[in-house]
Amino acid sequence: SATIKPLVAGNWKMNGLKSNVAEFYKMRAGISDDLADNVDVMICAPATLIAVLAEKAEGGAIALGGQDCHAEKSGAHTGDIAAEMLRDAGASAVIVGHSERRSDHGESDADVNAKARAAWRAGLTAIICVGETESERKAGQAVEVVERQLNGSVPDGATPENTVIAYEPVWAIGTGLTPTAGDVEEMHKAMRDNLENRFAGAGSAMRLLYGGSVKPANAGELMAVANVNGALVGGASLKADDFLGIIAAYS
Ligand code: PEP
């Protein structure tokens, strides 16, 4: 929809030391006011860097996000991070249900749903990830799998302000492979229909990101697909030149 402002969010995953903060500063400097009028930009940094980057982000166009949160506000959960802590460090959003969390940590749709509600409780936007595996796509089940993940992972009460959906086919993450524009269009239409059935007008206005091997060279084509309202970018968000090249698809 032409009225939805796109979002390009970078996911740094488990990458980034204080010595890499210069790259963030280069990104911030590369986003003109005109560009910022057309596209929202975010970096989902490792939790250890959010407070460091928040200082560098001041006065610029880059928002900050976390990559995961615990469902509870505080307590005896050694090593976990609460949504409230991310917010306190300077984040305005958090990724939940990334496929690497679902596979490395066995997170279920119910877990992701609870984390999304924790994000809202803390005043963060939940970036909820869904996506089929290669074998699920080959079996013709991609749309069915993603709809099941949406139904289970997106809590009641989702709005365009508190929720962003990211479609990330697992087989496209970090592989250099991408679905065809036609396959992306089919999936994003199915997600839009699902969200409109459940949330009416809020479902029409929610941002649907595509993620999986987005690069400057394919960003234009992928971002032009109907119902694609931005990108979630892994590897290509680590270097300012690549990330700015993707953002330029909206200039
Ligand atoms: C991701 O993991 O969110 C992602 C999209 O990774 P990449 O861009 O590296 O495929």
Automatic annotation (TrEMBL):
NCBIfam families: tim (TIGR00419). SUPFAM superfamilies: Triosephosphate isomerase (TIM). The active site is at H98, E168. Its EC number is 5.3.1.1. The lineage of its organism: Bacteria, Pseudomonadati, Pseudomonadota, Alphaproteobacteria, Hyphomicrobiales. Keywords: Cytoplasm, Gluconeogenesis, Glycolysis, Isomerase. Pathway: Carbohydrate metabolism; erythritol degradation; Carbohydrate biosynthesis; gluconeogenesis; Carbohydrate degradation; glycolysis; D-glyceraldehyde 3-phosphate from glycerone phosphate: step 1/1. Homodimer. It is found in: Cytoplasm. It comes from the Bacteria. PANTHER family: TRIOSEPHOSPHATE ISOMERASE. It catalyses: D-glyceraldehyde 3-phosphate = dihydroxyacetone phosphate; L-erythrulose 1-phosphate = D-erythrulose 4-phosphate. Substrate binds at N11, W12, K13, G174, S213, G234, G235. The gene is tpiA. HAMAP family: TIM_B. Involved in the gluconeogenesis. Catalyzes stereospecifically the conversion of dihydroxyacetone phosphate (DHAP) to D-glyceraldehyde-3-phosphate (G3P). Belongs to the triosephosphate isomerase family. Its main location: cytoplasm. GO terms for molecular function: triose-phosphate isomerase activity. This is Triosephosphate isomerase.
